[in-house]
Write a structure and sequence with these properties.
The chain is mainly α and about 120 residues long. The protein has three helices and no strands. The protein has two domains: about 1-40, no CATH class; about 55-115. It has helices spanning about 25-35, 45-115, 120-125. The relative contact order is 0.03. InterPro entries: Neuro-gated_channel_TM_sf, Neuro_actylchol_rec. Keywords: Membrane, Transmembrane, Transmembrane helix.
Amino acid sequence: MEINPQTGTRLDTHWPWQDKTPKEDGYYLQHRQQRSPRFLPRHKSENADIFESQIIRMLNKVHESIERNDIRLVEQERRELTELEWKQMSIVLDRLLLVIFVLITVVSTTTILCRSPGTEASTTS
């Protein structure tokens, strides 16, 4: 499909106004002189500036909220890691103290039993 640069119409269609040429048609010339809104120069208005400032303010608040959340998560992970280290330390210390308790109990029981006076049944008869 090709477009006629003079008329702006497709080449495979006929000109809808038989009595006028494209250059004589006022409607065509009027619209040809107007620019598409896409190509009009953009001027910032006060409303656009206010809208942009509101969007920027909202984005800054979202960014601050995300930063605070990241800091909170890092702090929470640090606390959980510290808690895990203390739990592991308490398990190790608990087992160490259990072994010490069992050793002291076995040694003291053995000592007490070994030092007790022996019953000499053969000397009393």
